[in-house]
Each structure stands twice: as C-alpha cells, then as structure tokens.
C-alpha cells in the first residue's frame, strides 16, 4: 500500500500501536451519542474511489478533505467579508491545555483542520472527551457552544462519508475476489509484507478522481511488478534507474543509499552509468534483479500518435548469481585493473558460477532413491550431468555439490526432507551473504517426467544451431536427468540463456569413474583440498599451493584438476613431462608464451557472452583484439615451438592454437576502433557495404545534413552576416546565435530556443522541420544498428566452439606453467607413477600447505611412508595428543593427490601407484541440519567408506570410535579395522588412542605394522620445588614429530591440558586420578594374565615351576593357586570317569 506520511509534533503523543486503518480526524469528536447526524450525501461510483484511509495507511481520506472544503466554501459564501485568521501550528500538548483559535463564524479554519489531520493516528484521552467541560476547555470559556456544535456537525458528516467509503471499498473488494483477481503490487509502500495493494482503477466506471490513485509511471510499475513478482526491478527513468515500493527499501538497505516517499511508493535511485555496479551488489546478496528499460526515444515518440503518452518500458534483462551475463553487468575491466583497485567497488565474479538443478526419483520396486542433476555455467558454456543412487545421508549428492561448487540451485518445491537439510547446511556454511548459495524453488509439476520430456522434445525439435544435440541423443538420457533438463530449459529461457543447452561439445558426465580419482565430500573437507576448514578461504588449501595461474580461465581449469585427479598413467606422465620441460628449459620461447598470458581478460566468459548475444561493443572489441593478438604472436613463435619444445602435450597445444584463433582477426577488421571503445553502434562498422540497411539510413542522414548546411546561405543573407555559422549549446544543434541588439532583424517566424543577456538562439522554420527529421533518422539508425549488431554477434557465435577449444588449450598451458612454479619451490621431486603396482613409497615427505605456510626452509620435519598392496598395507599410528599424527596422514593423502594431478610432490623421492579414490574419516563434529550427533556423523562417514572403498583405495581413519564409551568405541574401531585388513584389503592409515588395537599386528603380521610419533618425556624436576609431589605432577613432553616403529600405550593428555593453561590445581588432581586409574587397570591386566597362565597348567611339575617364578607375586596367593589347581584336578577325574562309563 502507499506509505502514509504521519506528522507528529512530539514523540510522547504518538502511539502508532493504537492506529487503525480507518482512523481519521472525525474520530476525536465522535464519542458523543446525542449529537444530530447530517444526512449523508449520495455515494460516488465505485470507480471514483479516492485515497481512502485503506489506501494511504492512516491518512484522512480525500473525500473527507473535500467535504470540509465544501463546508468552508459555503461559509465563505454566506459571509464573504469574513476571512480565516492565520493559524499557527501548535504542539500536541497545546490541544489539551491551550485554547484553539476559532474563526469568526464559530468553526475551525481550513488550515487548522488540515494540520489536525496529522494527528489522526494519535488517540489522546483529553481529545476524545466530549462532555461540556472539555468542550468548553477546548473552545475557550466564551460560551460559544453553538460554534462547537456546528463544528461537530461538520465532522460527523465527514465520519458518515468515511463509513460509506468503507462500505463501498468492502463491496468492491468482494467483487474483485469473486472475479478471481490476483494480488497486485505487494507492499509498494513498505508496509506489512503479504498485504494486497488496491487494484488498478476500473476503466468501465470513469471518475474525475480515479487517476489520482496512482501516477501513470506507478501504474506502469505495478503492471511490470505483477509479471515479475520475485525480482527487484530497476526501472529506467531518464538518466537514472529507480526502485519502487519494497524493492526500493531492499535496494536502499543493500546498497546503502537513501530511500524516500514519492507520491504513493517508497523509491530510491542509482545513476545510469553505475547500473552494473549496483546490480552486481544486489545479485551477490542473493536477489533476482530485473532491468526495465525505455523501449522508445523522445524523437521517435514525438513523431508517433501517442506523443503525449508515457514512455513504454519493458523488462530487458534478468540477473541472478548464475546468470550474470549481459551488457549491463559485464564491466570492461582487465584482471590487472581489478587487482590494482581501479574497479575496487565492482563485485568480482566467483571462480565458477554453476546453476545446479536437482531431481529425485524413488524406485518402489528396488526401494532405492535415484538422484539426477544437471549443472550449467551460462558464463562459460560448461554443462555437467549425472545420475546416481544415493542413501539417506545424501553423501553422493554432497560430494558432487562440493565438486561443482554452484552459486545457485534449482529444486522442486516438494524436495525430500534429507535433501533439504543437506542443501540448508551447504547454503548456510558461509557467514558471508555474498558467498551463500541461492536456492530457487520451482513448481514440482515441472520436474515430472512427462512434463519435462514434453519441454525437452519441444526445445530440441526447434533447435537449428550447428552442433546442437539431436533429439534421439537427448531422450536417451536417464529419466532423472531429463527431469532436471526440462525445468532447467524453462528457467534459462526466462534469461534468454537457453542457447548453450543445444551445444553438444560442452557436455560431459561428472561421475565417469574411469576419468578421475574419487574424492568424497568428507575427503575434500578433511584434507582441505579446495578450501581450509578455518574460515573457508582458499589460502591454506591444496588448491592454494598449486594455483599459480595467470588467467581466469586457467584458474577455473586448475580447480577441476585438483578436485578430480587423473587415473590414466599416460596422461599423468604427459603432464609431468610438460612440467619438467618448463622447469628445466632455458628457452625464451616458453618465457614469451608465459608473458602473453599475463593481464588477459576472461576470454572464456567473453566469448560465451558474445555467444548469448549479450556483449557490449567495448567487451567485444576487448575480447576480439586479445584473441587476434594471441593468434599473431603465437603464429610468429611456431618455428621456435617446433624446433625447441620436446613435450608432446605442450607441442600439440601450442601448434593447434594459432589457426583456431585466426577467425578473430576477420571480425576485428570490420569494426571502427574508436566507435567500438565508446559504444557508438551507429558508427561501429567501418565498411557499410555488408550492411545495406545501415548504408541507406546513413545516406538519408547525410542528405538532411547537407540541406541544413546549404540553408546557412539563406540565413546569412537574412541576417546580413556573411561569417555566421551554426552553434551547439547543451546538446541543441544548428542554433542561429544573434546578438540581442540585432534581434529586430530576426524574422518573426523563427523559433527562439534559448537566450542569455547578450545573445538569443533561434531555429528557422526550415531548421525546425529538418532538425526534427534528422533526430528521427538518427534514432532509426540506432535501432537499425542494434539489429545489425545482434546479427554480427550471431555470426561470431558460429565460431564459438572453435574459439572455446583454443581458449581451453591456453588454459591447459597456463595450468602446466602453474605446476612448474610449484616445482620451483625447492625439495620437490617428480614422483614415479607405477601403473601395475599398488604402493605408496615416500621418502622425506612433507605436508605441502604447512610447509609453505611456515615460510622458513627446513622447519617441517619430514617423514617416510611405505605401504605395499601385497605386503604391509595397514599402518596403526599411535602417539601423544598433538604429536602430529593427523598432519602426517593428511600429508600422505595430499602427496598422492598431487602426483595424480601431474605435479611434483614435496619429498626427496616418491613411488606411487594409481589410486581410484581417497576416503577419510577425521575430526569430530555434529551436524545440526542433518539431525546427527557427533558419534552418528562419525559412523555415517565410516559406513560410506566401507561401502565404497576398494583394494586400490587409500582409507584414512582418524580416531574412530571416540564419540562413545571406551569399550563400545574400542570394539567398533577394532572390528572396522579388521574388516579393512581382511576383506577390503585397501591401503589404510589408522590413527588410534586404543592400545588393544595394536594386537592386530600379531594377528596379521604380514599386513599390519604399528608406528608412533616420537617424543621426549621430561620428568618433573623436584629439586626446584621441594614440596612438589613427583607422583602428582603431570608429565611434560617435547614433540619430535618423527614417525618411528612401535606403539605407545599412553596419550599424555595432561600435557595438552598444561599447554592449554588449565589451572595447576586441576592438573595435580587430574594427575593423581590418572595414576590411580592406570594402576587399577594395570593390576587388572596382570591378574588376567596370571589366570591365563594358570589355565594352561596341566601337571604338578608345571605348577611348581610356575610357583617358583611367581613367588613374589602379590596378585594371586599360593592358597588360591592350590585351590584352583585342586578344582581343575577334580574336573579331570570326573571327565575320565564319565569316559570310562
């Protein structure tokens, strides 16, 4: 509803909590029941409804003001000499204690009544009283009771008018609801959300006040908002873009700009040239933003039949996080400009901007859930699809979501509860609103297979683009994938970005196990492969270590490499050969190629914007000139590349790229550089022979200009000024400037345009006609130029796939150069990849991230690792808390990932087999969104590892079973580890604080080995503290961070408590209790061992020997031993007797 403006003199008298929608000034004087009522005037037609209190949020209705004005006019006619006194505004308190000034006629003056309307929502008890004393106090003690009665009569009639208005409005609302009218522009004034705005005026019931409800612009905005209710609309109004209603309040809050009331709606505005900055900000906060532009110009409108009507406006573009492609939002900034701060206020694009669509299908026969997904990146043209079964934990879906890293997710409204919880945990993972994933919920009917198949069939039947998918290939996809593809087509059609779905070369399946190593969602988090676990940033992750790329498209490719390492030994070796040659070669050719990649714009997104026909002339010229420059430079380097570069991969990439980029020069030479950089599409094309429509329109303009130039002769003769020429002032062209002293010679039919103190500027009738014609031709030329520009972009789109392939080659070269930079860091080696042998053999391995974060050389303690698939394939690692166990097992896994990416690794030597996956269970944390406790989360991850790991996998289990009681946790850990040793036979690193698990080394000596993180135990120094009790002092450890063979039975947790600055009294008490519990456990173990030994004694001589060896043992007395022996002898005798019988 239009937001009301309530004026209050003092804060104390304003009580908005008691306001009602129909409060008016008559309320203050309506409590008297014995006053005569005036006969109400006939109601006006429903269509003539004015601004009632329902429409302005509490302001007196317009009819009330008109009724008061009519009454005042009647009083003026009766006494024309009587005039209203000047009324000064008084405070709210003055109405309760001071006398109100009255007119001579005995009624309130009109200006006072107008001021009282500002207090229509403030109910004061003193004002509401209507007894004689209060009336006398309000009107003075002069006894003018008849004046007050007349005043009450006027206000009573106003009240009756308002009651009639309310009845009419209720009748009209009922009529609209019966017709099934939809909700209008929701809350334009910023009131309660969900409230319905008053409907547009009914054209069938004309009224003289109907047009006063909304201005023409506001009516136009309401109509646009009805079509796009879920978008913030930026409406072009001259030199600025305006937001209205709720959109204005949201935009003002997000953009930190002023929002104010204008007519009926709250509004705020932004400059036209800053549109892309503010749209990007709104989109980054998760809003859908629509840009509404004027679709006609003043010149064309002046020549049309509706010259006095409002400018037509249409929605020209919609933007969300994943669809941020278009001329309005793509700033022409090079990467160096952004980093240098020239575009510091521009929200940068994320590395990837995937739109992910998810569907679910439940198989009742198999009782299995199948998930389909299609991910599209409109800015680069990449398309990913997948179909897979998933369990209740949705771990498979979580893995793919983390790999894709979408910025927007499209889901049905009837999504299952587990999936909703998963998406909620992902979207709320970041504390920053800019980094959160936007979720778009669509009607579930769109995800039905029949509806989706119908959409897909219609879409691909009308596909005419070269290289588009054939219908047979699309319908052969899995049904869950088609259920995603249908809604995705409908969604992208709203943004005019559906063209890329017809491109077959960009399509690839995500979960092709033969292509890359499997890294589960838990592995990506626990190993910090793509982001760190502290603040979610890239710094400290493996991607941060490996990413030294110089181009945006190279950075995106590097992320794909890291998240899905290779499994093909030949491909790994090709990358290693290219990295080695780049590292060791001193050729200037590679240095020249590396310099060419610096400060390039985002070519991949640029050509995709051109492919969508949403590119500006500036962006097109920047992209096309960069591609042409690369083609020329690489063409010149071809002889050196052929003679100097030995790497097969590098040679193939660099030799193919120049001829793929060659078409860019043909497009570049057609353009006028100056016009392209300025955005002038009317003069964009240097040769118009290929554009006949533009050529014809340009000739027409030149004809008019020639006539205007020839008209100067006649003007000079008329003014007798041979040197006179046209002038241009404030955009007005062809002005005839005449001094004011000579104005008498100016013909009377000339039109005066402007003037100063000294001169006047005119247009002759001929100039008026020709200038109007010239403006129309220019506007028509602009329209023709836009049409030809779109066709020109379409021609470039035919070369899209060729250009994309060339840019992919450049991205691969950039990533190889990046891996070479990693290898230069020192103490890195080229790992040997073993194709047929499963092993992990690392000498002096280091954690890549920690080693780099420490900064100083030789600060990280290296360690050896040896695992053999057919030998000792399991390592049980023990040691004190904070001894470096978790860092060590992460180090082993990250080195394996780096090797299969094709990088050098931080070790002196490494021989590694090909792993099909790395699975980890580390850390301890609950998951509130999934409804899991810490122990449940721990076991769910372990269950996923058990079901997916193979004998070619690396499994890392860190302190499994610690989330429950000691015996339950120990039993679960023991059984799980034995299962991996005996059944799965995978390479396993198992970290534990349970000493009994080390017994598995004796059960499986060929496959299990035990290790510990070395440390030094420093005994308490009693010499420095004579009163110190040695038994009650916790140990102090010095960590060596060196992996050594053997197991350690204690974890020395009190040492960590000391490092955490736990109070000393608590430490002493804990040390005493720990010693007591440890003694009790050791005694129990000793007793069990003694009983075990006794159980094996069968004869008297053995018993005597045992007694001699344990004569000093206090655990079992000799009498107990003899009694036990006699009982065993009796049992044997009974058994013999039973056998003889």
UniProtKB/TrEMBL annotation:
SUPFAM superfamilies according to UniProt: DNA repair protein MutS, domain I, DNA repair protein MutS, domain II, DNA repair protein MutS, domain III, P-loop containing nucleoside triphosphate hydrolases
Protein origin, superkingdom: Eukaryota
Subcellular location(s) of the protein: Nucleus
DNA mismatch repair proteins mutS family domain location: 953-969
The entry's keywords: ATP-binding, DNA damage, DNA repair, DNA-binding, Nucleotide-binding, Nucleus
Ranges of Polar residues composition bias in the record: 24-35, 1112-1122
GO molecular function: ATP binding; ATP-dependent DNA damage sensor activity; mismatched DNA binding
Main location: nucleus
Biased composition (Low complexity): 9-23
Coiled coil: none
Key word Metal-binding present: no
One of the GO biological process terms: mismatch repair
Composition-biased stretches (Acidic residues): 162-175
Region (Disordered): 1-212, 1112-1141
GO CC term, one of those recorded: nucleus
Basic and acidic residues bias (residue ranges): 130-148, 1124-1141
This protein's record includes keyword DNA damage: yes
Pfam families: MutS_I, MutS_II, MutS_III, MutS_IV, MutS_V
Function: Component of the post-replicative DNA mismatch repair system (MMR).
PANTHER family xrefs: DNA MISMATCH REPAIR PROTEIN MSH3, DNA MISMATCH REPAIR PROTEIN MUTS FAMILY MEMBER
Stated family: Belongs to the DNA mismatch repair MutS family. MSH3 subfamily.
NCBIfam families on file: PRK05399.1
Protein name in UniProt: DNA mismatch repair protein
Source organism per UniProt: Sphaeramia orbicularis
Taxonomic lineage of the native organism: Eukaryota, Metazoa, Chordata, Craniata, Vertebrata
Gene: msh3
